Amino acid sequence: MRRFLIIGHKAPTAGEFSLNDLPGSAGRLDVLCRSVNSCFFLSHEFRRDVECFLLLLGEPNPPKTIMISGEEVRYLNPDERSAGSLIKKALSIPCGDKFTESTKGIYVRKGGLKELLDEYEFVVLDENGTDIRDITDMPDNYILSDHMNFTEDEESLIKDLPKISAGPKVLHADHTIITILNESDRRE
Ligand SMILES: C[S@@+](CC[C@H](N)C(=O)[O-])C[C@H]1O[C@@H](n2cnc3c(N)ncnc32)[C@H](O)[C@@H]1O
User: Within a 13 Å sphere around the CA of 181, how many CA atoms are in the beta-carbon half?
Assistant: First the structure.
């Protein structure tokens, strides 16, 4: 199982946003929707061995975490609006500290980075980290930021985690995920 955690610093934590304006009124949810697609979609295949975690830190109820299980998910199509509408549904149901399923294979809970760091061993994807090509064993679990830098609080929580670079240029989060999965594919 590979896991990608993408931190959406302005992404909404209630379902009242418009699917017609994911980049604007929905706090750059478009970045997270493209990242979801990068985690799972190949041209004629679906990556069932990936889990995607979206950490949503925007108003009105932060933090919330959405988990999409590649093994279980249904109704997800390869366009931003499809992911956006499943996220909207997940943010429309009541949730507590434990994951609640909103649609098949999509779960939501209250809680943020600290909880996830207690549950999984992550590496941080960072263009200044160790080149992935110099790593012998591909890590399983990766953290990325959205279009913004990690905050100081996040930096202090992740400061001791290994930093891994996908290449010399700063990439979009969704492209970074594809690059890492491609590297993993090449080694299999
Ligand atoms: C668009 S970048 C973040 C914006 C960036 N901090 C800036 O404002 O210059 C999105 C995320 O993708 C990941 N990323 C981008 N390029 C990368 C690279 N070459 N290697 C590893 N991770 C990368 C990082 O996790 C980064 O936080």
Answer: 25
Which residue minimizes the CA distance to atom 3 of ligand 1?
147
Torsion angle defined by CA atoms of residues 85, 87, 88 and 93, in that order, rounded to the nearest 10 degrees: 130
Closest to 67 (Cα-Cα) out of 48, 79, 54: 54
Query: Ligand 1 centre from 87 Cα, in Å?
Result: 23
Identify the structural domains of the chain with CATH numbers, from first to last.
Answer: 2-187 (3.40.1280.10)
Q: What is the mean pLDDT of the chain?
A: 97
pTM exceeding 0.90: yes
- Residue pair 173/145 in contact (Cβ under 8 Å)? The answer is yes
- Pairwise CA distance, residues 123 & 183, whole Å: 15
Separation of alpha carbons 178 and 175, rounded Å: 5
Binding-site residue positions for S-adenosyl-L-methionine: 125
Instruction: Out of 7, 32, 113, 170, give the residue to mutate to test ligand 1, the one with the largest number of ligand atoms within 8 Å of its CB.
Output: 170
- pLDDT tens by residue, 15-25: 999 999 999 98
Per-residue pLDDT tens digits for 25-66: 889 999 999 999 999 999 999 999 999 999 999 999 999 999
Q: Which atom of ligand 1 is nearest to the CA of 146?
A: 10
DSSP H helices in the chain: 29-40, 80-90, 113-119, 152-158, 173-187
